[in-house]
Amino acid sequence: MTVIVDLQNVCEGNVPEQGLFQSWIEATIEQEGTDSSDCELSIRLVDEQESAELNSTYRKKSGPTNVLSFPFDSSFPMEPRLLGDLIICTSIVEKEALEQNKTIQDHWAHMVVHGCLHLLAYDHMEDDEAEVMEALEVTILKTLLINDPYQDQGDNK
Hints:
CATH architecture: 3-Layer(aba) Sandwich
Largest sheet: 4 strands, mixed
Number of domains: 1
Number of helices: 5
Number of strands: 4
Order of helices and strands: EHEHEEHHH
Strand order of the largest sheet: 1-2-4-3
Radius of gyration: 15 Å
Low-confidence stretches: none
Shape: globular
Mean pLDDT: 92
Strand content: 15-25%
CATH class: Alpha Beta
Helix content: 40-55%
Structural class: alpha/beta
């Protein structure tokens, strides 16, 4: 399986290297297990203003958010398979990591895994969906030697 990651960083700041994004996505796809064909996705690293604008436009919610997922849905088979786009707000990821006493890199990994699962049609709108998605996130992160991100976090969805 080959994963092509188009990384667009339009922010200043300390962000993980492209190789880490690649490994987090590969781990997600391997553990999720439904389709191991070659795939491609874009990750755009943005500031709070762009995140807030996109969140308002596409989710009708005010303010910035940590990760937005835009799955690519096509009825035509494509090679490589296009998964979609992730929009990640760098400053929100950093703030959340500090607030939750996590390393920034571990929280980055969690946000990429979480967003990638959304691209693979997982959701957490209903409690049963959230349980499935969170369990898979924990399993994937464990393969990356990252602790359960929901431990001691209560019911943060």
